[in-house]
Backbone:
């Protein structure tokens, strides 16, 4: 394995940190995760997972576990009230 015997520290147990730790462990690294929050809490928020995120979950072996708890989105709209986030030609 690539990371056999190497130990990694992942700072932050958010979606990115936990995903990174899972991927490192799949490749043989010993990955430890630290988080500043003392406990998990429910925030009532959701996470939109488009195609690339779904493919990443599949690669991490988590697609089925997430799908069991997911709620499908029937429609999606993006709205902005401020200036555009990308350059526009004049």
Residues:
């Amino acid at each position: 394995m690539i990371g056999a015997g190497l130990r990694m520290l992942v700072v932050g147990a958010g979606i990115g940190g936990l995903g990174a730790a899972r991927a490192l462990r799949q490749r043989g690294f010993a990955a430890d995760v630290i988080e500043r929050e003392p406990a998990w809490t429910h925030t009532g928020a959701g996470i939109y997972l488009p195609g690339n995120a779904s493919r990443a979950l599949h690669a991490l072996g988590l697609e089925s576990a997430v799908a069991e708890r997911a709620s499908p989105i029937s429609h999606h709209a993006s709205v902005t009230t401020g200036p555009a986030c990308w350059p526009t030609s004049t």
Remarks:
- Helices lie at 15-26, 51-59, 63-69.
